[in-house]
Design goal:
The complex is a heterodimer of chains A (242) and B (400). In chain A, a hairpin with a 2-residue loop joins strand 10 (226-232) and strand 11. The relative contact order of chain A is 0.19. Chain A has one domain (6-236): Rossmann fold (3-Layer(aba) Sandwich). By secondary structure, chain A is an alpha/beta fold. Helix content of chain A is 33%, strand content 29%. The longest helix of chain A is centred in the C-terminal third of the chain and has 16 residues, at 183-198. In chain A, the strands form two sheets. Chain A has a seven-stranded mixed sheet, with helices on both faces. Chain B is an alpha+beta fold. Chain B folds into two domains: 3-52 and 265-398, no CATH class; 83-252, no CATH class. Chain B is 55% helix and 18% strand. In chain B, the strands form two sheets. A six-stranded mixed β-barrel of chain B has the order 2-3-10-5-7-6. Chain B has a two-stranded antiparallel ribbon with strand order 8-9. The relative contact order of chain B is 0.19. Classes of the chains: A alpha/beta (242), B alpha+beta (400). At the A-B interface, helix 2 and helix 3 of A face helix 1, helix 9, helix 10 and helix 12 of B.
Chain lengths: 242, 400
C-alpha cells in the first residue's frame, strides 16, 4: 500500500477474518487476509473448493462482512457502512457475474439489463437510452425482447455482463463466468470480459479453470482461507501486510 | 426505485403465474362478493323496514296512558291509579309551541253495516289532525272536520278497501253506515295506503274520537298522537308535552314514545343485523387472505435466487420488502375489484329475478370493500415480504 498512491488503490483488505458455523463445526473461511488491488487490474483467484475464494469475492462485493479487519474501497472504509449505504455502493461501484447467470426468467433480455437502472431509480427515458446502447454494444439488439429461456448460454451470459456493467462499476466480480458454458462460448465471454478490463474496468475472476486463470495478469492462489501465492506477470508479489 | 416501476415489477411477477394468481385473487374476490351481496341484502331490508315505518310521518310523538306499557289489571290486584288520557288532554297539547296537531286515538273492532252488507273492520276514533299524523290522503269527499269538544257530529270516513267491500263502485258519499249500535254518515274515502307489516290499512273506518269513546264505552283515550313542526327537536317537543301533562295530571302517569327514537332504535338493530351478515361474508374474506399468505410464501421461496440477485444489484432491504408487499396488495385489490363487480352483479341479478326482494348496495360499502381488500393484501404480504427482505444474499444466490 505504501508503494502505491491512494487514488489508484481500489481495494485494500487488512487482517480480514471470516468464520462460518456449519452445525457444530467452525469453518475459518478467511484467515488473516491482506490484499491490495489497484484500479484496472485483471486478477484470477484460484484454489481448491472450500479455500475461501467465493467468500473473498462476496466480501469484496459487499455481500458479506468480515468478522475482523478493515476493508477500504476506493479509500473509504466500507466495513462500518449501514445496509442501505452498502446497497448504494454495490449499485454504483460493483458488478456481479455469476456462473448460473441469474437472469430473471420472466423478464426479457432488455428488462434484465435494465434492472440495475430501475433499482437505482433512473427515469424511463434515460433507461431506454442506456439499455439500447448496451444491447448494441453486446450484440443483443435482435434478442432484446426474448426471455432468458429463448437465449443460448453465451447470449445469457452476455446479457448478464451487460447488466453488470450498465452502471459502469469500478470493479467486475465474476464467479466462474464460464462454468456453465462450452469451450467456444466460454472463450467469447472471457474475451468480452478482457475487453472491458482493457477499457479500464477492474476484473476479478474466481475460477477452477487453469487456462482461464493463466490469462490473468495477476494470479492469486488460495489455500485454507489464506493467500498462498500472489503472482503478477510471473513475478511473485510479496504479501503487502503492514 | 420509482413507485411506478415497483408496481410494474410486481405486476409482471403476478402475470408470470397467470393461473396461480387468478386462483389466489379469486379467493379474495369470493370473499368481497360475499360481503357485498350480504350487506346489500341487509341494507335493502333495512331500508325496506324503515320505509314501512316512516310512511306514517316521522315527526310524531305518541303518548299512551300509564307509566308501564302493560294494560289491564295490575298483577298486584290493586286498581291502577293512573289517570286516563282525555279529550281535554289532547286539546291542551294542540296549543303547545311547535306542535301542529294532536290527535286523540281510540281503536276497536266492530261490525260495519251499510248498503245491505255487513263487514267486521278496524274502527279508529280520531280527529281532523289524524290526517297529518297518518300521512293519509283523501280520495273523495273530505276527512273528519275539526270541531269543538262535545259537538262532534256522527261522520265516518272509509278506508278504500272497506268502501269497495260495502259499496263496490257506487258513490258512498252521504250514505248511512251503522257501526256497532251507532249510525254515521259517510263524508269521505281515503286513498289506498297498502299494508303495514301484514295489517291492511285500508280495511278501516275513521270516526270522531268522542263517538268512538261512546261506541266502545270507554272513558279514556288509548293514545294521543302529537305532530310537531318539521325541523323542531323531538326531544324538546317530548319534554314540553311531558311538562304540560304532568301539570294537568299532577304526576307522570303516561308514557311518551317519539317516532324518531323508535326509528333510531330500529335502525340500530337493523344496522347490527347488516353488520352480522357482513361478518359472515368476512369469514370467506379471511380464508381468501390466507390464500394470499400461502401463495406469497411460495413465491418468496421460489424466487430466492432473484432476491439474492436484486440485493447484489444494489436493491435495499426496503425495496425488496416493498416489491413483495406491492405484489400481494395488487393481488388483493385485483381480487377486490373482481369481487365488487361480482357482488354487485349478483345483487342486481337477485333484484331482477325477485323484484320484491329488497337489495341495495351503498357506494360506501363498495369503497370500504376496496380499502379492506388493500389492507388484507398488505397484512397478508407482511410475513412473506419480511422474510424475503431478511434473506442472506449469499445463501439466496446459492439456492437452486
Amino acid at each position: 500500500m505504501s508503494d502505491e498512491s491512494p487514488t489508484s488503490t481500489l481495494v485494500s483488505l487488512h487482517g480480514i477474518n471470516r468464520t462460518f458455523y456449519l452445525g457444530d463445526s467452525k469453518v475459518h473461511a478467511l484467515c488473516d487476509v491482506n490484499l491490495t488491488i489497484a484500479h484496472g487490474e485483471y486478477i484470477a483467484v484460484m484454489g481448491p473448493s472450500g479455500s475461501g475464494k467465493s467468500t473473498l469475492l462476496n466480501l469484496i462485493g459487499l455481500l458479506d462482512r468480515p468478522d475482523e479487519g478493515t476493508y477500504m474501497l476506493e479509500g473509504r472504509d466500507v466495513t462500518t457502512l449501514g445496509a442501505d449505504e452498502l446497497a448504494a455502493v454495490r449499485s454504483e461501484r460493483i458488478g456481479f457475474i455469476f456462473q448460473s447467470f441469474h437472469l430473471v426468467p420472466r423478464l426479457s433480455a432488455a428488462a434484465n439489463i435494465e434492472l440495475p437502472l430501475v433499482l437505482a431509480g433512473f427515469s424511463k427515458t434515460e433507461r431506454a437510452k442506456r439499455v439500447s446502447q448496451a444491447l448494441q454494444e453486446y450484440g443483443l439488439t435482435d434478442r432484446a425482447n426474448h426471455r432468458p429461456n429463448e437465449l443460448s448460454g453465451g447470449q445469457r451470459q452476455r446479457v448478464a455482463i451487460a447488466r453488470a456493467t450498465i452502471l459502469r462499476p469500478a470493479v467486475l466480480l465474476a464467479d466462474e463466468p464460464t462454468g456453465n458454458l462450452d469451450r467456444v462460448t466460454g472463450e467469447e465471454v472471457v474475451k468480452l470480459l478482457e475487453k472491458l478490463n482493457a477499457q479500464g474496468m477492474t476484473l476479478i475472476v474466481v475460477t477452477h479453470d487453469q487456462t482461464l486463470g493463466a490469462r490473468a495478469r495477476r494470479q492469486i492462489r488460495m489455500v485454507d482461507g489464506g493467500i498462498a501465492r500472489d503472482v503478477t506477470n510471473g513475478a511473485v508479489v510479496p504479501n503487502d501486510a503492514p | 426505485m420509482l413507485l411506478a416501476d415497483a408496481g410494474r415489477f410486481a405486476l409482471q411477477a403476478i402475470i408470470s403465474h397467470r393461473l396461480r394468481s387468478f386462483l389466489t385473487l379469486l379467493g379474495i374476490a369470493v370473499g368481497i362478493a360475499a360481503v357485498i351481496l350480504l350487506t346489500s341484502i341487509g341494507e335493502g331490508v333495512h331500508q325496506f323496514v324503515l320505509k314501512e315505518f316512516t310512511q306514517f310521518g316521522t315527526n310524531v310523538v305518541g303518548i299512551s296512558p300509564g307509566k308501564v306499557k302493560t294494560g289491564g289489571q295490575p298483577p298486584t290486584g290493586f286498581p291502577t291509579t293512573a289517570r286516563l288520557l282525555t279529550m281535554e288532554d289532547a286539546n291542551a297539547l294542540k296549543k303547545l309551541p311547535n306542535v301542529t296537531g294532536a290527535s286523540p286515538t281510540v281503536w276497536g273492532n266492530s261490525e260495519v253495516e251499510a248498503n245491505g252488507r255487513l263487514r267486521r273492520s278496524t274502527i279508529y276514533g280520531v280527529d281532523a289532525d289524524f290526517m297529518h299524523v297518518f300521512s293519509a290522503k283523501v280520495q273523495t269527499g273530505s276527512f273528519l272536520p275539526a270541531e269543538g269538544a262535545g259537538s262532534s257530529r256522527a261522520f265516518v270516513v272509509l278506508g278504500s278497501k272497506l268502501r269497495k267491500e260495502l259499496f263496490g263502485t257506487e258513490n258512498p258519499l252521504g250514505a248511512r253506515v251503522r257501526i256497532g249500535g251507532l249510525h254515521f254518515r259517510v263524508i269521505g274515502v281515503l286513498a289506498p295506503k297498502g299494508q303495514f307489516l301484514g295489517v291492511d290499512l285500508d280495511d278501516t273506518a275513521y270516526i270522531p274520537a268522542e263517538r268512538a269513546l261512546e261506541l266502545y264505552n270507554r272513558e279514556g283515550l288509548m293514545e294521543i298522537h302529537v305532530l310537531y313542526k318539521e325541523g323542531a327537536s323531538s326531544a324538546a317537543v317530548a319534554e314540553a308535552v311531558k311538562q304540560r301533562l304532568k301539570l294537568r295530571h299532577g304526576r307522570e302517569d303516561f308514557t311518551i314514545t317519539t317516532q324518531e327514537d323508535m326509528l333510531k332504535t330500529l335502525s340500530n338493530i337493523l344496522n347490527i343485523l347488516t353488520m352480522a351478515v357482513g361478518a359472515l361474508g368476512g369469514i370467506s374474506l379471511l380464508v381468501g387472505s390466507v390464500g394470499i399468505v400461502t401463495i406469497m410464501t411460495i413465491s418468496v421461496t421460489e424466487r430466492t435466487n432473484e432476491i439474492g440477485l436484486l440485493v447484489a444489484l444494489g436493491a435495499r432491504r426496503r425495496t425488496i420488502l416493498g416489491l413483495f408487499l406491492s405484489e400481494s396488495v395488487i393481488l388483493a385489490v385485483l381480487g377486490g375489484v373482481m369481487g365488487l363487480l361480482f357482488g354487485i352483479g349478483l345483487a342486481q341479478l337477485l333484484h331482477l329475478l325477485i323484484p320484491s326482494f329488497p337489495v341495495h348496495t351503498p357506494w360506501r360499502f363498495a369503497a370500504v370493500a376496496l380499502v379492506v381488500s388493500g389492507v388484507i393484501g398488505l397484512l397478508a404480504g407482511v410475513l412473506p415480504a419480511v422474510s424475503a427482505s431478511r434473506l442472506d444474499p449469499i445463501d439466496a444466490l446459492r439456492a437452486e
